[in-house]
Records
---
Amino acid sequence: MPAHDPPPRRATLVLVTPAGELLGRLDEIEVATPWWQDARAVVAAARAATGLDLTVLRLLDTELARPQGGGVTYLAEVSGPLPAGVPLRAPLDEALRVRALADAPERPAYARPGGPAADLRWAVEVLGTHGLRLAGAPVQDRTWNLSSLWELPTDDGGSAWLKVVPAFFAHEGAVLARLQGGPVPTLLGRDGPRVLLAAVPGEDQYEAPRAVLLEAVDLLVGVQRAWLGRAAELEAAGVPSARAEPLTAAVADVVARRAAALPPADRAALDRLVAGLGERWAAVTACGLPDTLVHGDAHPGNVRGTPGALTLLDWGDSATGHPMLDREAFLAAVPPADAPAVRAHWSDAWRRAVPGCDPEGAARLLAPVAAARLAVVYQRFVDRVEPTERRFHDADVVDALAAAARALAVEEAAAR
């Protein structure tokens, strides 16, 4: 994302019935947040402007080339007759009509008319198996190419979270099932790409103080310690592999496909990185930490709760691989003043977990690999989501490759 604050978001909503019939579009409305995937703010703005309750299905177009803010056009579903006085504009211009009606094989069910309603029916059935019922209308929180999130108020005074993901994240339910009893959300039910979770109280820890950051590190290392040497077991459950051989091939592929967008010096650095991966992995192995479960998106915002009661969220990016692949992404999201303490605490935790290992050496060797792995992850998103949604991730591929080249340059400079 750009370093500056994103501009305000303005939403145009193209309305469709549950049967897929186009109705027209609403006038552009101002939305309180800039984040394209934040459906809650769009639904609230539409209700305030028109009195209309709707469900955001998917992105149709954006004014800007990459997130966030600016003009955004969504397809939104209405479940009943339109209230009197809704300022509907019809017919649609041809380009927008075609975009709204076009199909895409990559599109998840939750981005299609009727899809969210089917997910909610399943969630209500699961609540019933736990003796719970809805205590109010479900609230759509987020929808985009990586997930659909809903909050369901329950009659016990709490709430549940419905999360539905595309097929390439569907292993998250299997991971959560194996981590129950640990620092992860309580799993109420799962069905392929759907999971229903007990809501986690507290706050997302984007601005966490140092003590909370260190506690989060301990929780993640504790989970990973329990799965050391059990990568094959996870892979048998559908968890993808980011171990040495498949990750080497994936990095070579993304470099070949996307490095041309980078300056010559960065391209040359990436070529050196790819050429030396075999030797690099041998050195990583010599550091003495076996493969385990990698969270894949470990940052403070994926930690929720309160000090002493933290939960690790969002395991959709999880894979098997070296545990230190998670460290650089976490460090990149903490205040610079806290980074040295977090780095040292992380290494100390692994020295206690695996006596005689060299976590700091492994982390240094994996710094450019971890950045290149992010490029692999973003490219896989681009390859697996429909064309209008690729703008969420496309620029991130090149940014991650540039970061890998920079990490290698730092390593080479230190060696000189």
---
Amino acid sequence: MSEAAYDVIAIGNAIVDVMAPCEDADIERLGLAKGGMTLVDTARAQELYDAMGPAREISGGSAANTLAGMAALGAKCAFIGQVADDQLGEVFAHDIRAGGIAYATPVRADEPPTARCLIFVSPDGQRTMNTFLGASQFLPADALDDATIAAAKVLYLEGYLWDPEEPRRAMRRAIAAARNAGRKVAFTLSDAFVISRHGDDFRALIDEGQIDILFANEHELAALTGIKDFDAGLAAISPKVPTLVVTRSEKGAHAVSGGEHAHVPAEPIAKVVDTTGAGDLFAAGFLFGYVRGRPLAESLTLGAVCAAEVISHYGARPEADLKALVAARLG
């Protein structure tokens, strides 16, 4: 196997997050599912945007957030995702390249516009996300370069992007390219609603041995397995994937790999400001440890440190020096 040019290459939604604080009464008035993620059409996106208070625009997207964390830790990363030829598309492309991440996906010249996620942040830090997928849902398979995918140690796929048909075909092609090159494939389940729509696909990928690293939270694990008991759900899936990583918010995180089961507590923080990106940055820390050959528990701790940093402020990308935080925690 040739030497890898990248630690991780990811395929995901190219989204700009539009974030604003709100009260719980606003969530109820707008008919939103607090703490969840809902796909919205153009009209609903405009309605919710109009209802927002003063907002911040921050480049986001689950897999892109993960790469931002990995790059901040010192990993070499590349991203594949579709934006439109518009202002938000320029914002996204600038931000991801400024983070040191290779990004060469051609822009989409036609409608719809670049994707955006309207995020209402309630006083307890919970984020209620309303996603307009826009151009990101039209990522074509021919936008992929098989040689670039084969040049990364790990291909990381975002479950959210499995929903639209074109990116789903692109990700299947990417899986084949990675596996043909002997590389690892990581997959994040993203949300229980994605599992409700595509759980059969995900279970088939797992049963066929196409997934090497599976990321889930405890709710997604239950949705995937149909088992409410956490330990039983973990036992049901862990023999089917080489590495399983499951987060449990304030209860910490678990990983099972090669017969080893590791658990770490959540890192203490003074205040939870915004939980947007917690799972994304956890995956960043864990994958960084994974590609560097760190022990399983240490990789989990790396994930916990990164997640704690991102929930201490608004936005889904790190603001503090992750390298310094990791050095202070692990030496």
